[in-house]
């Protein structure tokens, strides 16, 4: 009885190529069509786990945690200096769904920096902001601006403690004029004091007290 040989079914090459192209686990650098590159872990063709992304257009680098293709977890974001080309850290902290979320520190170009809480990429919650002029705000933030209760200390040590709204003094508050030895306590609206009382406060220790003390009523 003759033996009939059937040709072995060959699998199309593209099946093998597709299996090799599937990204899962730790991979070497993968380049996107636009020149971006990623080195790190994958899951089901999505960046997932630890990895580093370099954007070709801006030169920016993110190194940290990923979750299903988005920055999620702890990581740092840096950009090159336009003059020296050296990398400067812009943000280090927590991310969620590709945005700053949780506690983190951001460094701005003009020498200012913020350390505190974020939500949806905006300063939100408790935080401390160091400004270029030497003043410091510490307190609550809402949608990237001071909102709630907070203290602003100026470079000359004078300070305001009280309510804020949309980045401006708003509501009951106290302003300590430590250079003059006075205290104003009252109510603000959109950065303008509407009513209150002014009394001497630490006048004897003030570096530049007013000529005459405020009489007690």
Automatic annotation (TrEMBL):
Record-linked SMART domains: MORN (SM00698)
Pfam families listed in its UniProt record: MORN
SUPFAM superfamilies documented for this protein: Histone H3 K4-specific methyltransferase SET7/9 N-terminal domain
GO cellular component term of the entry, any: acrosomal vesicle
Subcellular location, record wording: Cytoplasmic vesicle, Secretory vesicle, Acrosome
Family matches, as InterPro entries: MORN, MORN3
Keywords associated with the record: Cytoplasmic vesicle, Repeat
Principal location listed in the UniProt entry: cytoplasm
Function description: Assembles a suppression complex (suppresome) by tethering SIRT1 and MDM2 to regulate composite modifications of p53/TP53. Confers both deacetylation-mediated functional inactivation, by SIRT1, and ubiquitination-dependent degradation, by MDM2, of p53/TP53, promoting a proliferative and cell survival behaviors. May play a role in the regulation of spermatogenesis.
Alphabetized PANTHER family for the sequence: MORN REPEAT-CONTAINING PROTEIN 3
Name of the molecule in the record: MORN repeat-containing protein 3
Record organism: Herpetotheres cachinnans
């Amino acid at each position: 009885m003759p033996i009939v040989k059937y040709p072995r079914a060959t699998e199309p090459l593209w099946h093998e190529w597709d299996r090799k192209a599937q990204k899962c686990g730790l991979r070497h650098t993968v380049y996107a069509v636009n020149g971006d590159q990623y080195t790190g872990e994958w899951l089901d063709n999505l960046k997932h786990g630890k990895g580093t992304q370099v954007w070709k257009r801006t030169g920016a680098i993110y190194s940290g945690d990923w979750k299903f293709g988005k920055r999620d977890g702890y990581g740092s974001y840096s950009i090159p200096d336009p003059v020296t080309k050296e990398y400067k850290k812009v943000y280090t902290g927590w991310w969620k769904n590709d945005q700053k979320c949780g506690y983190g520190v951001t460094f701005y170009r003009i020498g200012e920096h913020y350390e505190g809480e974020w939500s949806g990429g905006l300063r939100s919650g408790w935080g401390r902001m160091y400004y270029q002029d030497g003043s410091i705000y510490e307190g609550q933030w809402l949608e990237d601006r001071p909102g709630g209760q907070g203290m602003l200390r100026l470079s000359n040590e004078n300070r305001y403690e009280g309510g804020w709204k949309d980045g401006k003094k708003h509501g009951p508050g106290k302003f300590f004029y430590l250079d003059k030895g006075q205290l104003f306590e009252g109510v603000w609206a959109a950065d303008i004091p509407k009513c209150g009382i002014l009394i001497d406060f630490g006048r004897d220790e003030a570096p530049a007290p007013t000529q005459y003390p405020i009489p007690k009523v």
